[in-house]
């Protein structure tokens, strides 16, 4: 970067950003179930996007069965919310139910 600045080819700023992997590094390796669920969720999300569906959360059902029997779908995010009066909110505001 210093050499490029001297040559006039770079006039920006550079700052490193570090990350602490303390808690993540102590976690166990993902199980076969974790990998299957993660892959299924990602693939399902990609299918929903490919179909033009946005504002949808991925849903995987029957996960106690083998992965071949899992049912993958989408749930509209608004269906996960509720509209009702609550202290400090307008009656028409949508909030996540407690």
Describe the structure.
The chain has a domain at 30-95. The longest helix has 19 residues, at 32-50. The protein contains three helices and four strands; from the N terminus they run αααββββ. It has helices at 2-7, 22-25, 32-50, and strands spanning 56-61, 71-76, 82-83, 94-95. A two-stranded antiparallel ribbon has the order 1-2. Strands 3-4 form a two-stranded antiparallel sheet. It is extended and about 60 Å long. It is of the alpha+beta class and 98 residues long. The mean pLDDT is 83.
Helix proportion range:
25-40%
Mean model confidence by pLDDT: 83
Distance between the termini: 51 Å
Order of H and E elements: HHHEEEE
Q: Biggest sheet: strands, sense, closure?
A: 2 strands, antiparallel
Structural class call reads: alpha+beta
Q: Compute the CA-based radius of gyration.
A: 23 Å
